Predict the 3D structure of the following.
Amino acid sequence: MDTQTQFFRDTWAEINLDDLYENVKNIKQHIPDGVKMLAVVKANAYGHGDVQTALTALAAGAHGLAVAFLDEAISLRRASIKAPILVLGATRPKDVEIAAELDISLTVFREDWLVVAEKQLSEGQTLNLHIKCDTGMGRIGVRDEDELKRIEKVIHDRPSFHLEGIFTHYATADELDDEYLEEQLKRFERMLASLASPPEYIHSSNSAATLRKPGTLFNTVRVGIAMYGLTPSLEMKPVLPFPLKQVFSLHSRLIHTKELSAGEKVSYGATYKAEKDEWIGTIPIGYADGWLRKLQGQDVLVNGKRFPIVGRVCMDQSMIRLPGFLEPGTQVTLIGKQDEDVITMDEIAGKLDTINYEIPCIISTRVPRIYIRDGEAIEVSNKLLSPGGSGF
């Protein structure tokens, strides 16, 4: 397809759906037969794009999807996705009717929420619920067996509710010291034992636990970061059961090149001064795109070689030092591979003193996403031009 008719600036992200598909297939082969996988596509699929990511994960064998908020689930239903969808975070009880109408499963962790939610449902509606247990994460969740049993009883006693699942979340699964994880697991097992009857879905494993802790799998797992080809932590890299393929790459093109004389300066604050005559290139990406000011000095790839960003990153543009004159239009890779070199999400995360999860999430929606399948661009998501902001 002609991607240039879909956006009008030379900066874009590429989402390799073939690599996403392979990551999901490898994860499915790694877990035992019969264990279902929920593909986590919250936060616009960690910045990758929710609909294409969800469709690819489901095609690769994911059983259902998980999101953070009801709005995200509704977006998937509006895209005609029929698979099971679980909202992992809190939903206002006054909004449960639309969840029941669209067959979206919600998370419950308070008895009083159930009392209010029941009154919002129309006659004949059934709301599927998963109980969230706080076994040590400290965010939301039921904290003890007595509270859990009360909530279970309320759900079972109300025909408008169906207890579909129960889950918890590990705080330290991406660390190789398992002492705290084992404490959480034992607490979750005690809570499960207190139930009158187990629900259909029992899940505790995130990506990290799914990849390295088979004793935590129960009958369902939730996989997010690993699906996108990113390791849950640097500590886990040596113990990965199979290679992960980074799905997201970020590119731009030179829009201008110029030769500076020794002593001339670049960008706000004049923080960069040319020590000798040198060539500087400008690319149309800046901190409004999520390419933050702290990335001054970070390398980019041009013709397979590394060159640094010089001067402060601007809102919409950045400057790079070049080996000589290069034609405007020359491709620049900020994240991803060129020839034999690669700039990974982990490298950018290290420069920003954060984790790789954050990097694709902060690349803003004004950067178009080009979806690649079988080596060809199949679709462009451009939030700036799409009617109603749907992205498609």
Notes: Residues 172 and 178 are 8 Å apart (CA to CA). The longest strand covers residues 331-338. The domain at 248-385 is CATH 2.40.37.10 (Lyase, Ornithine Decarboxylase; Chain A, domain 1). The first helix runs from residue 17 to 30.
